[in-house]
Amino acid sequence: AQSVTQLDSQVPVFEEAPVELRCNYSSSVSVYLFWYVQYPNQGLQLLLKYLSGSTLVKGINGFEAEFNKSQTSFHLRKPSVHISDTAEYFCAVKDTNAGKSTFGDGTTLTVKP
Amino acid sequence: ETGVTQTPRHLVMGMTNKKSLKCEQHLGHNAMYWYKQSAKKPLELMFVYNFKEQTENNSVPSRFSPECPNSSHLFLHLHTLQPEDSALYLCASSQGWTENTIYFGEGSWLTVV
Asked: What residues of A are in contact with residue B32 (Cβ under 8 Å)?
């Protein structure tokens, strides 16, 4: 079994400030890790994913995340946010040998002018 | 355009009505999913179909009845729902049910009155 904890339910930041959305996971097996974004009134879309290799993963819209195996974390970062980044962000894990993804509760990022 | 199309986008139904949600994917995938997204709750996986065969049913009440006539289409038949079933229902697909990335539709907002 696996679980995902997104440590912040809401993150308010000012435009052009850096942001970090935190995600910790728990699993007894190897996992793949994902960040999805959900803009208002839309479905989820993939931001980035870690499958193997380099622990620093770059995604769309200037986001990146770092896989830290020892700390079982996969935090999402962006050096300078825009108003358009306001959305709900979901961290997810998937057992490398199974089909089911487990999602975190989500973090609401609100970017203020 | 996400490649996964859901209709209707909004549905209001009474507790004694029968209605259906429809999902179509144009990505050539062979796995399809129904998720439920309620306010202040994590994303809940309801059903998984792989090559038209149901591979997962997460203890979903029988008032929700899925149907997958082919790998491109997925339905969720609804009858005698409860107000607490009001939520955003997200359809998704992937290339194989162990495949890493899930592609989501924009969702169908369901309100049960």
From this structure: none
Contacting residues of A for B97, CB less than 8 Å apart:
99
Angle, CA of A25, A44 and B108, to the nearest 5°: 125
Cβ of B104 within 8 Å of Cβ of A45? The answer is yes
* 8 Å CB contact of B100 and A98: no
Q: Which of B45, B101, B104 sits opposite A100 (nearest CB)?
A: B45
Q: Are A33 and A49 in contact (CB under 8 A)?
A: yes
Per-residue pLDDT reduced to its tens digit, A22-79: 999 998 888 899 999 999 888 899 999 998 889 999 999 999 999 999 999 999 999 9
pLDDT, tens only, B17-36: 999 999 999 999 999 999 99
Residue in the block written with tokens 């986001």: A63
